[in-house]
Design a protein that fits this description.
With 390 residues, this protein is of the alpha/beta class. Helix content is 27%, strand content 20%. It is globular, with a radius of gyration of 22 Å. The chain binds flavin-adenine dinucleotide.
Length: 390
């Protein structure tokens, strides 16, 4: 069987953007994964956190931005835009511009010699590729704190929750203070459960809505960007290659700390006054007793105590760790040099293993916080497509 030039693993905005660029250049490739699965699996009632123009699937054809699609459907095009409409937009882009996407999962990628990979699909097929692009977003990267790991079926990470109906009538501990945790607490409440949000820090913070119709001078001094208004955000959005040259320690600090955990403004009314919140509270132990979970809690200024729950929801974020990607063979992962646990990449998104590339959130320590979001595809897809062109 003839080797393929590029195998793309993934089926979200980054993979679709790259595939559309490769197709437009006539570069042969195959792209694998269930289209827009991450966005289609979101629980009902959630909106995007980013603004409409920050969430485009970046394809070479004009007139295909997310705001233009929303306008054609008569939907809100700036904020809040629903997850459902974003998934529908992505599916339409896939069907029109990446029609040859194959829905199979990639189950294993192994090295098959110099600059050659063996890619095994969930249907048992094996293909050989000269280049492999990993674009699987946050899949497999969810982080559950060690203290909760022994709870088995009584703990669920928000990444695995596609509906909250199961929590009707249940007392649920939600752990975390970021957007996912706060949204989860609101969704438990709306499903008829009793959520208790346990937060390590001293407060829960919400974003403010982008003010419409800002004056010209304000827009010049604080330009609108995919990360929100601000000159520094504009630099991060416009010059990702400049971010790449910032000394490593500083770059990692900036990429990790740029946007601290915050919930979107549109969930505030659905949260405040409805959810029990315990601030400055850490879970120190967790065990199951008689179909319930007992959490040992430590709240600043109070002696340790325990509380019982029917279930625990971990809104505890994601770890950008190459070793969590089960479809990459262990030997192959060993050859990928790291920044922290993320891959250390060239300016063209190539890892230290020649022919293996990464796109999406795993590239944020190289190119900046914009790459934690869909917005990074605007730079990544054309750059990598040019690199892969033959
Ligand atoms: C709750 C939540 C809300 C978010 N909201 C926003 C937002 O509003 N705006 C924003 O810009 N970012 C948002 N993000 C961040 C967002 O997840 C990333 O920016 C986004 O995933 C990047 O797109 P992607 O193409 O890299 O990944 P995804 O869109 O996650 O796509 C990855 C795809 O790869 C597929 N896949 C996984 N493993 C395999 C495999 N082995 N073989 C084949 N296919 C595979 C998956 O099924 C999925 O379809 C949010 C994240 C979370 C957790």
């Amino acid at each position: 069987m003839k080797d393929i030039h590029v195998a793309i693993i993934g089926s979200g905005p980054y993979a679709l953007s790259l595939a559309a660029h490769l197709r437009a250049r006539g570069t042969s490739h195959r792209v694998f994964g269930p289209a827009m699965h991450f966005w289609r699996s979101m629980p009902k009632g959630l909106n995007l956190k980013s603004l409409g123009f920050a969430t485009n699937i970046c394809i070479p054809q004009p007139g295909q931005s997310f705001p233009e699609w929303c306008r054609r459907q008569g939907l809100e095009e700036l904020e809040p835009c629903s997850m459902e409409s974003y998934a529908a937009y992505g599916l339409e882009i896939q069907q029109r511009f990446v029609p040859d996407l194959e829905p199979e999962q990639v189950v294993m990628v192994r090295s098959a010699g110099k600059h050659r990979f063996e890619v095994t699909l969930s249907n048992g097929d094996v293909v050989h590729a000269r280049n492999v692009v990993s674009a699987t977003g946050l899949s497999e990267l969810d982080h559950t704190p060690e203290v909760l790991e022994g709870l088995g079926e009584y703990v669920t990470h928000t990444a695995a929750l596609h509906s909250y109906d199961q929590f009707a009538g249940k007392k649920v501990a939600v752990i975390g203070a970021g957007a996912s945790a706060i949204e989860a607490a609101a969704l438990v409440h709306e499903a008829g459960g009793q959520p208790h949000l346990l937060v390590r820090g001293s407060r829960v913070t919400f974003n403010t809505r982008a003010p419409p119709d800002r004056s010209l001078i304000k827009r010049i001094l604080m330009p609108d960007t995919v990360l929100g208004a601000g000159m520094k955000n504009w630099l991060l959005q416009s010059l990702p290659w400049a971010f790449y040259f910032i000394p490593r320690q500083r770059r990692v600090r900036l990429a990790k700390g740029w946007l601290p955990p915050r919930a979107p403004w549109w969930i505030q009314d659905r949260f405040e006054g409805k959810i029990n919140v315990k601030l400055r509270t850490t879970v120190v132990s967790a065990k199951t007793v008689d179909h319930q979970v007992t959490l040992g809690l430590r709240t600043e200024g109070v002696s340790d105590y325990s509380m019982c729950f029917d279930h625990v929801v971990a809104g505890t974020g994601y770890t950008l760790d190459v070793d969590r990607l089960s479809y990459l063979d262990a030997g192959l992962r060993l050859r990928v040099l790291r920044i922290g646990r993320s891959p250390d990449l060239s300016l063209r998104f190539e890892s230290s293993l020649s022919g293996l590339y990464f796109l999406g959130p795993l590239t944020a320590l190289n190119f900046g916080p914009v790459f934690r979001f869909v917005a990074g595809a605007r730079f990544a897809a054309p750059t990598l497509a040019a690199r892969l062109a033959v």
